[in-house]
Design goal:
This protein is 35% helix and 16% strand. It is an alpha+beta fold. Among the domains are: 53-99 and 108-139, no CATH class; 149-350 and 405-413, Immunoglobulin-like (Sandwich); 437-623, Immunoglobulin-like. The strands form nine sheets. Strands 3, 7, 8, 11, 13, 14 and 15 form a seven-stranded mixed beta sheet that branches. α12 crosses α13, α15 (675-688) runs antiparallel to α16 and α32 (1034-1052) crosses α34 (1091-1103).
Length: 1104
């Protein structure tokens, strides 16, 4: 195919170029490479035994404690966005060596192998497919990344005053260097004495202790330990002034009598009945986050609330004990234990290898180390059972059993990832890619300004629709509007969260964290409702409410463009009511006008009016804060997928193209975190979309690959990018990809779309490669496709395997097929066309050396995989064409060093290199046979070895640079060493069969014994010494490398074959195998020993 026959692509930007290679052109290329090539239906393959490559299911790790979220999750069919979190993964693997009985033969020992002694530390190449498939750690559903520091934290808290009332504690970790909190709050409550009868009160007052549930805190690897501090915040029931409310705890010596204690309990009980949902701060303290047992913490009185900005400067003083605040007499001790990753994994995930028992009747099966019963941060299961169990331990009647002490129930605390670390640890700190369901919002009311009321408490609720009015009655809610989605202490789920109350302050600061579970499907109607109450701390008339509603504020969950709120500070105007002259019997009523959510979304901030400042943080694996990613994923939530109404679900081609190409403007971190669902839906458009949509999907897929890369275009190693590598080899599944437009569009879609992902990918890629226009977008598309050619080809290879196996099952009543199988003529021709273009791109110096090297190695690995997956001749044709191009450019040292040598090395490291060359096949398992078949040439015995052998010998003989010559000969030796160490060919029989492949190549070696060549024996002619005789010449090194290969071949064959190697060889000679096992040469061939081959005999005798 010449450039003259290639029509130029259109110059318009974004227009899909036309194909320049036709079916007739492919047939012409095939005729040049293999004149007698067979059609697809007649392909016999390359001797690869069926079932060598298997498609296996990778079991996903399941939690021992299943996740139980407050809000229900729709099934994957209704919400495709969550399908990636629950579907099984499948991967291709080589059949394990031990599973093949024909390969269980005695391995050649070290002293029996010449090359194993010569090169005892051989480094094998990268495998085509792994023999064992395991799930990478970053694909496990973790709360934090694998290298995070994990601390099991428990606290023993005892106030000198005693437990006279319920207390509410919050634990959180701060990083004083970053100036922020780095975990969510772990909240729990301690029941007071008023919850029990009088007799128990008298016994518990002297003890006054409680042990809280355990918590697992994570510190991301980039956090410096010396900057991390664990903060304890204690609050109590609202009573009034902070000074008087905390005074009993600060001066317990004044209240030691039983009468005083009883008065305190009765007062606390009265406040609990009137103001039980309102609280005020009591004390706080800080210690460094480091391992240790019984580590003391000093608690300081806290009379008013403090924001994070106010608390951070005081942490260092609190740790040193120099904080200028009253110390609350108490005993507060922490136990912090480092948990290694193995123990965490065994406690968190189910294992089939061993059982995990928590019952008291199976005491002998418990390990010596306490078992962790771990609950995730977002489940609604309460840990109160653990708390009650531990409270039982504090009673004299309870005798702890051994099983109780060997089981520790704990809850994980979600870490927060600082924006500076998001590129490494992901948006949520659990890894760069989301692999499990997470959907929560954290609200932090900061301060209230210019408010005319005091004793303010803010109620926070999540509403799914607008309401008509608000009422000040206690526990008043509009049914159907308020969601039960707010996490309370002990992980209980409630509908409302309240801030702490600052007594008599009109501009209060707030310190609460409100944790909200978000629904899977968000609409523009969802909003956060802040309701402001003026709380009466003193007793009022029985017919009056203890609180009055005095205002409200609205925070829409979604912005105007449908994107969820950003992690930022938001200032909202508070709509306040006039001051009433007396307390209301109904608590007040506020009417809300229709459309108030949209008005709040559009309205600006009036700085002269009352305002509330609030900070938000969203951790979600289904809702992105990036506008482009959010717009792309929006149709794949429930109630939108497959909708028949145009405004909800079905998009036209222009909308789809705009959303696909919009991904190129998305942030790298967001694309990487949502990579799995994005890639799935983009490939869905590539498979099922129209012509225009498929072209846009191909370009979007390349952009997504680039954004998801950790080190794009900077490394040519296969494992340089674990995200892309594991997506292709583990996550991608041909038949998990459905029509993105839903079942409605699937029924009405055209039947002309490609029948597989790989066919669609090859079509669009061929168009991009053939495009010679100078339009910037098209040039960038071509460049990106070359940069990620390895990922594209490996994805195509897996799609081929899955598609052919699926088609075989459909045609044979569900029977299980075995690879390799035969591709259709169209797929075969399209594959060869793309490979032809890629070979052409290798020789195009304008692409740059890095891209040339990437494409070069990509073709080599793809050919290796194609040998195992398909029986078609495409890999043989591609290699032959590649060598033709190399022959025309082999005088260029850069071509040899950076292109040819890496390509050959990948080929000779192929696990089934010998099989492809006709040795060690299923037909030759019983006896050694030499055979030679007719065309095509790729079916001849040793066809690939001959190409490699002759090319490397030619370079070693003709190349002027000594280093290149040495590299060529060392690569030649590696071809033999790789087979010696090949785990599939360790038997003597296999090694003999491999050696016999090279029988016909000996004349190529014999020519190097002539004058001036590598193996010429005259020292004077060869110039053994150089540089005045100080160092051996490179030619001596080359001679040694080449002769060790010859010696290995001769030492690998048995005596009947050994004599054949010392005969003069005629190129037309054939060796026939008879049923008796004997072998004889063609009698018409004249055989006589040569002087050069006698030299090899001497080597063999010395070796033996």
């Amino acid at each position: 195919v010449t450039e003259a026959t290639i029509p130029q692509a259109e110059e318009e930007k974004g227009e899909r170029p036309q194909l320049r290679i036709t079916t007739s052109d492919i047939h012409a290329v095939r005729k040049l490479v293999s004149p007698n090539g067979k059609s697809a239906g007649q392909h016999q393959g390359f001797g690869i035994e069926r079932g060598t490559v298997e498609l296996v299911k990778i079991p996903r790790k399941e939690l021992i404690q299943p996740q139980s979220l407050p809000l229900p999750i729709p099934p994957p069919k209704a919400a495709p966005i969550i399908h990636e979190f629950c579907r099984p993964w499948r991967a291709l693997r080589l059949r394990p060596y031990s599973s093949d009985p024909l390969l269980r033969k005695a391995e050649a020992s070290q002293d029996q192998s010449l090359l194993k002694n010569y090169e005892p530390r051989f480094s094998a190449g990268e495998p085509t497919f792994p023999t064992e498939v395991s799930l990478p750690t970053f694909l496990e559903p973790r709360v934090s990344v694998e290298d995070a520091h994990v601390f099991l934290v428990s606290i023993h808290l005892r106030f000198t005053l005693g437990m006279v009332e319920p207390l509410f504690c919050r634990l959180v970790v701060y990083d004083i260097s970053l100036g922020c909190r780095v975990t969510e709050e772990f909240s729990y409550s301690i029941p007071g004495a008023m919850d029990t009868n009088v007799n128990i009160i008298k016994r518990r007052v002297p003890i006054s202790s409680a042990m809280v549930p355990h918590a697992l805190f994570y510190a991301l690897p980039n956090h410096l330990p010396q900057h991390l501090y664990l903060i304890l915040k204690v609050s109590k029931i609202l009573m009034g002034d902070g000074e008087s409310a905390t005074s009993p705890y600060c001066f317990p010596e004044k209240l030691t009598s039983e009468t005083e204690q009883q008065k305190l309990i009765e007062k606390a009980a009265d406040c609990f009945r009137r103001l039980g949902q309102y609280r005020q701060p009591l004390a706080w303290g800080a210690i460094a986050l480091m391992e240790g047992s019984s580590r003391p913490m000093t608690l300081y009185r806290q009379r008013t609330t403090m924001s994070d900005d106010q608390r951070l400067p005081l942490i260092a003083e609190a740790v040193r004990g120099t904080l200028k605040e009253k110390v609350v007499p108490s005993v507060c001790e922490f136990d912090l234990e480092r948990i290694d990753d193995q123990r965490l994994t065994e406690s968190k995930f189910q294992s089939t290898s061993k059982s995990r028992s928590t019952g008291k009747n199976t005491l002998t099966s418990l390990p010596p180390v306490p078992v962790l019963d771990i609950l995730d941060p977002f489940s609604s299961a309460s840990v109160s059972s653990s708390q009650s169990h531990e409270n039982e331990e504090s009673s004299p009647e309870h005798v702890p059993s051994q099983a109780d002490s060997m089981l520790v129930q704990c809850r994980e605390v979600q870490p927060f990832c600082h924006p500076s670390m998001a590129s490494a640890f992901g948006l949520t700190g659990c890894g760069p890619v989301a692999v499990s369901y997470m959907n929560v919002m954290y609200l932090y009311p900061i301060h209230l300004e210019r408010f005319q009321y005091r004793n303010i408490a803010i109620r926070v609720q999540l509403l799914q629709k607008e309401v008509d009015f608000l009422c000040g009655l206690k526990d008043f809610e509009v049914q159907g509007a308020v969601l039960q989605a707010i996490y309370a202490p002990n992980q209980e789920i409630v509908s409302s969260g309240y801030t702490l109350v600052n007594y008599h302050q009109k501009n209060p600061q707030f310190e609460n964290e409100i944790k909200i579970c978000l629904p899977e499907k968000l609409t523009l109607a969802h909003h956060i409702l802040f309701t402001f109450y003026h709380v009466h701390c003193k007793k009022i008339q029985p017919n009056q409410q203890q609180q009055e509603i005095v205002g409200y504020a609205i925070l829409p969950v979604l912005q105007n463009d449908g994107t969820i709120v950003q992690d930022n500070n938001y200032v909202m105007n508070v709509f306040a009511t006039p001051i009433a002259s007396k307390a209301s019997t109904t608590g007040g009523v506020i009417s809300l006008s229709p459309g108030y959510v949209a008005a709040a979304r559009e309205a600006g901030i009036d700085t002269a009016k009352t305002s509330l400042t609030c900070r938000t943080r969203v951790l979600s694996s289904i809702h992105s804060q990036d506008r482009a990613v959010s717009a792309f994923l929006q149709p794949f939530h429930s109630d939108a997928f497959g909708s028949e109404t145009k405004d909800q679900g079905v998009l036209d081609d222009d909308q789809i193209v705009n959303r696909l190409l919009g991904l190129r403007q998305a942030s790298n971190t967001n694309v990487c975190y949502f990579f799995f669902p994005i890639a799935r839906f983009v490939l869905g458009y590539l498979r099922f979309g129209s012509c225009v949509v498929r072209w846009a999907a191909f370009r979007a897929f390349l952009a997504v690959l680039e954004k998801a890369s950790w080190t794009p275009h900077r490394s040519l190693k296969q494992d340089a990018n674990q995200i892309l590598h594991n997506f292709v080899h583990v996550v991608f599944d041909e038949y998990a990809i459905e029509n993105p437009c839903g079942p409605v569009a699937a029924v009405t879609s055209e039947s002309s779309h490609p029948q597989s992902i790989f066919h669609a990918m090859l079509m669009e890629w061929l168009i991009a490669l053939q495009d010679s226009s100078t339009v910037e977008d098209n040039v960038e598309t071509k460049r990106s496709s070359l940069a990620y050619s390895n990922m594209l080809l490996q994805l195509i290879l897996k799609s081929m395997a899955m598609h052919t196996l699926h088609q075989y099952g459909l045609k044979n009543g569900g029977a299980v097929g075995l690879l390799p199988m035969t591709l259709s003529d169209d797929d075969d021709e399209l594959t060869e066309a793309v490979l032809c273009e890629l070979v052409y791109c290798i020789g195009n110096n304008s692409n740059g050396l890095l891209l040339q090297k990437e494409v070069n190695r990509s073709i080599a690995y793809f050919c290796r995989g194609l040998f195992l997956v398909a029986k078609n001749q495409a890999p043989a044709h591609t290699i032959s064409q590649y060598m033709v191009w190399v022959s025309a450019n082999q005088r260029d040292p850069n071509v040899l060093v950076h292109v040819l040598f890496p390509f050959i090395r990948i080929l000779i490291d192929f696990e089934y290199f010998a099989v492809v060359n006709g040795a060690c096949t299923a037909k030759n398992q019983r006896r050694s046979t030499l055979f030679c078949v007719a065309e095509p040439s790729s079916q001849r015995r040793g066809w690939l070895a001959k190409i490699v052998f002759e090319k490397l010998l030619y370079v070693a003989d003709e190349q002027k640079e000594e280093k290149i010559r040495c590299d060529a000969v060392r690569l030649l030796r590696r071809m033999f060493v790789a087979q010696v160490y090949n785990q599939f060919h360790q038997s003597q029989e296999h090694q003999e069969q491999i050696a016999l492949i090279y029988f016909s190549f000996f004349p190529s070696i014999a020519q190097f014994t002539t004058d001036g060549k590598l193996l010429y024996s005259s020292v004077s002619s060869a110039g053994v010494m150089s540089n005045g005789g100080d160092a051996p010449d490179k030619s001596q090194e080359l001679k040694k490398e080449l002769l060790i290969c010859v010696a290995h071949l001769l030492s690998s064959v048995s005596t009947p074959y050994l004599s054949r190697f010392f005969q003069q060889f005629n190129g037309d000679m054939k060796l026939h195998a008879h049923e008796s096992g004997g072998h004889e040469f063609n009698p018409s061939v004249s055989l006589s020993p040569t002087g050069a081959l006698m030299h090899y005999r001497k080597i063999v005798e010395e070796v033996s």
